[in-house]
Structure formats: structure tokens, C-alpha cells
Amino acid sequence: MDKSQTLYEVAYLISPAYSDEEAQNFQQLLKSGLQSLGGMIDNEGEVIKRRLFYPIKKMAEAYLASFRFLIAPEKISALKSKLNSKEVLRFLIVETKRQPARIYRPRIAKIPGAETMIVPMERKIKQTETAAPKPIEPAANIEEIDKKLEEILGK
């Protein structure tokens, strides 16, 4: 990796007037143009047809495509000119950084009255799962409730 190159990510919407194959070809054309500018593809993206949340240029669907690449910052304008074509509805180029690999660390759950357990992050243990059930109290007698109501209401 050259020190003068920066990591970027581009995302763009291709018009649904084109077929799946034409959208794929446009992405390959864009990648080859980027490599001819001296850039290097870091992460190959894919082209997916998506329904848009709001219409763009009176279109409710578009092909969403993205990929990450390394290129010198002064050559970004040449890439932008390639993205300003009739096929592309919108595009966004952002400078990004490499994300470190996520390390899975299990959480250790301590439950009173139980042994220490290793629990996956996604599952939370409720205290009631291991605690002893509470004794059920008997329901109050209806006559007792009526007497208390009469006392309260003053009858």
C-alpha cells in the first residue's frame, strides 16, 4: 500500500431502466477505470436491486452498488466524472478507515445460587430461570373483601 493513497468507499444507485447484466457491467467498467487511474480495489461489492424509500428522478427502484478502493486523493475528481453519467441516479464517495476484525468475547454471567456460566452475548439470562419459584398465596375470600369495602365506604 502506497502512503500517498487513501482508502475510500463509493456507493451509488444505477437506474432500473438497465438490466441486471448491464448494471454489473457498469460496475466492472467503473472498477477497471479506477484501476487505470492507479487505484486498487480493496473490497469487491455487489449490485443489488432495491426499492427506494423515496422516488429519485421519478424512480421507485434502483440497483445499489458499492465497493472500497485505494487511490490518490487528487484522482478522486476523475472518478466523480465517471459517476456523473446517465446510468447513475446518485452517488456518494467517503474517505474511510480499515475496521479492525471484531473479536467475539463471551460474557460471564453470575447468578446468585448457581455456578458461574459463560453466556453468549446475544442471550440474556433472566434471574427467574434459575431462582426457586415463589409460593402462591391463597386468594382472599369474597366475604372478607365485601366487609372491607363496606368499612371503607362507611355503610
Automatic annotation (TrEMBL):
GO terms for biological process: translation. Binds together with bS18 to 16S ribosomal RNA. Belongs to the bacterial ribosomal protein bS6 family. Coiled coil: none annotated. Pfam families: Ribosomal_S6. GO terms for molecular function: rRNA binding; structural constituent of ribosome. This is Small ribosomal subunit protein bS6. The keyword Ribonucleoprotein applies. Keywords: Ribonucleoprotein, Ribosomal protein, RNA-binding, rRNA-binding. GO terms for cellular component: ribonucleoprotein complex; ribosome.
